[in-house]
Design a protein that fits this description.
heterodimer; A: alpha+beta; D-Maltodextrin-Binding Protein, domain 2; 2 domains; 16 helices; 46% helix; B: mainly alpha; three-stranded antiparallel beta sheet; 6% strand
Chain lengths: 420, 355
């Protein structure tokens, strides 16, 4: 009986699907998760459900490896060959919106209500992109390490101060049990540097650019707070607390699990691997407060409509479909990301109340600060990355930050202020 | 000459057309395009219109000056000295940042300095990274061209013998050339790692006397490490070119010289080397040009670091053009590199001309 019903349902579905496909307008979508099977399976599922569930749009996915995704989009845009639905990294979105590669997303307010603010990409007062998930960074440690070294467990309300943090590193170093006390993740070049390390600078009171005008970095990157940050950053390496820029990427991935490092500055995506790796007493500590509050980076991959797309309403329909809690939960369970709604979080294995990674949801809500929302961020991020690498390698702090400021300012000027 | 090219030579031009067409489309046109872009403020992506800026890009890149800094003097008129007795100097940033007395140095940074008496002579440039990349590239060429050329000749002489199984050695020496440079670079990164094979071998050979060092993480050794790896990787290619040269030398010359009682060195000096003249010119020019184009190894092994000690001219064009979206700046570097390679090739042609 049930079998017959299912068969009839399936027949009905396939026949109606076949006739619907004729009327559906095709929308191409580019996605950054090429090569990741779990991720591909989830996104394919979402697209298949969407195509089968309505009669207007037919989405097809093309996946790219993350490392070359941004280059592919820029190349595609220069060749006038962008897909309709674009997947975009949060901090890059203003650059593409400003350049005309993206257009505002006509999504209803109801669809994004209750989402973490940092998962919604706004530029010029309009919503351009919406994300299904957020990412957060925490200070990984073992409870046993904290107990052995006699350290207070920091909390969201009362994080470690600069003195407490350096005291913890000194204690870990003095114990002689670790190759390095602290692993900031220098092996992960690229966007990791501004994403993970600019919050330290912001906690000192500086920033990559002056967010009141977005026209200069002078005084914020190389001001007193910036210099204090730079001196502290350099001391991590000169005092032997942290491995430098030539860190082996394999050590970055497994060094904390293997017990080489006492503390590791890492994202929520590494949480599952750490638990599976046998670190059962891992604790996810909030970022230290260096004087101006605890800060972590925010903004992850989001979906939006490309500038040349003739059917932004179709894109909005797809994004609204993808924002269902069950898909947020699927991504979270599949690849460990933080769902962008509390309802989605409740459905997940790791972020529900009492889940292993629940602390990250709290960190994201309490400490997250998006990277500068400016088209110029793309270039400023590269300059910042190089400056931090140079300082870690022993370059003069003031000279390096001055040079970074000059380069950022010159770039902003060459771009006519980037439309702020 | 001109008539030969133009009259009743349709078939010749027809055959040349595909080659000429492709070279024009992909080399000549892009070069003029780059030259044009270097005079503008073109960005990789921007809604702003492209503007003509004259030679601004060139002056930003090439401005370089020498700044003389006197030591700090205290109230009594004595030079302030640090614990080691060296005079102390005011910081360069006091002169180069917002100092209306020294407008000519505004925005410049220190590249290097030397001392003349108590005065510090500081070389300051607007774009220190570019000058460092130029220096690194020239250092790379100066080391790689002679060493790789000589090693390749040595290998070619060794394998140019009629021995059983010599083809196996030819294949072994040639193998690195066939493997992708990306793969080779990744493998050598592991070899050079602090706990890598190289340090282990050196430690074992010196009975533990040698302490492992971070070859690619140290500004003093990073460029040398890349040079050594690059020489190893491409030496087989030039070996084959030398080998083809060696095999064009007539065996009768060798027979004659052995009848005359020539020593091995005399045979090489007076028979082999003169016969390799044109091959030598080719190898030298090819190595020089390839060395100037150094990019993949740097990008994979060090990304130009640490402290710009391995960044090269081509690496800078990519970093700026794509990473920092500054197409005009990258084009300017390309044009300068083109002129540099052209002039060096012309000098080489002149020095190795038939007298």
């Amino acid at each position: 009986m049930t079998n017959t019903k299912t068969l009839a349902g399936a027949l009905l579905l396939t026949t109606s699907f076949g006739s619907m496909a004729m009327a559906q307008t095709e929308l191409t979508m580019w996605y950054h998760g090429g090569g990741n099977e779990v991720e591909s399976a989830i996104i394919t599922q979402i697209v298949d459900d969407f195509n089968a569930g309505q009669a207007d749009w037919m989405v097809t996915v093309e996946s790219f490896p993350q490392g070359s995704y941004n280059d592919s989009v820029v190349a595609g845009a220069l060749a006038g060959n962008l897909p309709c639905i674009l997947d975009v990294d949060g901090p890059v979105m203003p650059n593409w919106a400003w350049a005309g590669y993206m257009q505002p997303l006509p999504i209803s307010d109801a669809a994004i209500e209750g989402h973490l603010e940092s998962t919604i990409g706004r530029w010029g007062g309009e919503v351009y992109s919406v994300g299904l998930w957020e990412a957060a960074v925490a200070l990984y440690a073992r409870q046993s390490t904290l107990d052995e070294l006699g350290l207070r467990t920091p909390t969201l309300d009362s994080p470690w101060t600069l003195e407490e943090f350096m005291g913890a590193l000194e204690a870990a170093k003095a114990s002689g049990k670790y190759e390095y006390a602290f692993d900031p993740g220098m092996a992960w070049t690229g966007e990791w540097y501004p994403y993970a390390f600019s919050p330290f600078l912001q906690s000192f009171g500086g920033d990559i650019v002056d967010r009141s005008t977005y026209q200069t970095a002078d005084g914020v990157l190389n001001g007193d707070a910036g210099l204090a940050f730079g001196a502290w950053w350099q001391s991590l390496f000169t005092e032997g607390y942290a491995p430098g820029t030539s860190q082996d990427p394999a050590d970055r991935d497994t060094g904390f699990i293997d017990g080489k490092y006492a503390f590791s500055w890492n994202g929520n995506w590494a949480g599952v691997a750490t638990l599976d790796g046998g670190v059962e007493d891992v604790v996810f500590l909030p970022a230290p407060d260096f004087g101006n509050g605890s800060v972590i980076g925010a903004g992850s991959w989001q979906f939006g409509a490309s500038g040349t797309c003739a059917h932004p309403e179709g894109v909005a329909a797809f994004v609204e479909h993808a924002l269902q809690d069950k898909y947020l939960a699927a991504f979270s369970d599949g690849i460990g990301l933080i769902p962008s709604t509390t309802e989605g979080a409740a459905l997940t294995a790791n972020y529900n109340a009492g889940g292993a990674l629940e602390p990250f949801f709290g960190l994201s809500e309490a400490q997250a600060l998006v990277r500068p929302v400016s088209p110029g961020y793309v270039v400023a991020a590269k300059v910042f990355e190089k400056a931090l690498a140079d300082i870690a390698n022993g370059a003069d702090v003031a000279d390096t930050l001055d040079a970074a400021v000059d380069e950022i300012d010159a770039d902003i000027e060459r771009n006519g202020g980037y439309g702020h | 000459m001109a008539s030969k090219l133009t009259t009743s030579n349709r078939a010749g031009w027809g055959f040349a057309l595909p080659g000429f067409g492709l070279i024009t489309l992909f080399i000549v046109v892009p070069f003029f395009f780059a030259f044009f872009l270097s005079l503008t403020n073109q960005r990789l992506i921007s809604p702003n219109p492209t503007e003509f800026v004259g030679l601004d890009n060139y002056s930003n890149l090439l401005s370089i000056r020498v700044l003389s800094i006197e030591p700090v003097v205290n109230d009594a008129g004595d030079i302030v000295r640090d614990a080691d007795g060296n005079p102390e100097y005011p910081r360069v940033r006091d002169f180069t940042r917002n100092n209306p007395d020294y407008p000519q140095y505004d925005g410049m940074r220190e590249w290097f300095r030397w001392h003349s008496g108590e005065t510090a002579k500081v070389v300051v440039a607007t774009d220190v990274v570019f000058w460092k990349s130029l220096r690194n590239t020239l250092m790379f060429v100066l080391v790689v061209a002679p060493v790789q050329g000589t090693l390749a000749l040595g290998l070619a002489l060794l394998i140019n013998q009629r021995l059983r199984g010599i083809n196996i050695y030819r294949a072994i020496y040639f193998m690195p050339v066939v493997v992708s440079i990306v793969v080779v670079s990744l493998l050598w990164r592991f070899l050079y790692a602090e706990e890598g094979l190289l340090n282990n071998i050196l430690g074992a050979l010196s009975f533990g006397m040698f302490e492992g060092r971070d070859w690619l993480g140290d500004p003093d050794t990073a460029l040398g490490a890349i040079e050594a790896m690059s020489i190893w990787q491409a030496v087989g290619f030039h070996m084959v070119i030398w080998l083809s040269g060696l095999q064009t030398i007539s065996p009768t010359l060798y027979e004659a010289s052995s009848i005359e009682g020539a020593s091995k060195w005399q045979t090489f000096r007076y028979v082999t080397w003169p016969g390799l003249r044109n091959t030598a010119i080719l190898v030298l020019i090819v190595i020089t040009m390839q060395a100037f184009a150094l990019f993949a190894q740097v990008d994979i092994m060090t990304s130009g670091g640490p402290l710009d000690s391995t960044t090269t001219v081509v690496h800078q064009t990519v970093v700026r053009g794509y990473g920092k979206q500054d197409i005009s700046g990258a084009s300017t570097i390309s044009v300068i590199l083109f002129l540099l390679v052209l002039s060096i090739s012309l000098i080489q042609r002149y020095l190795t001309r038939e007298k």
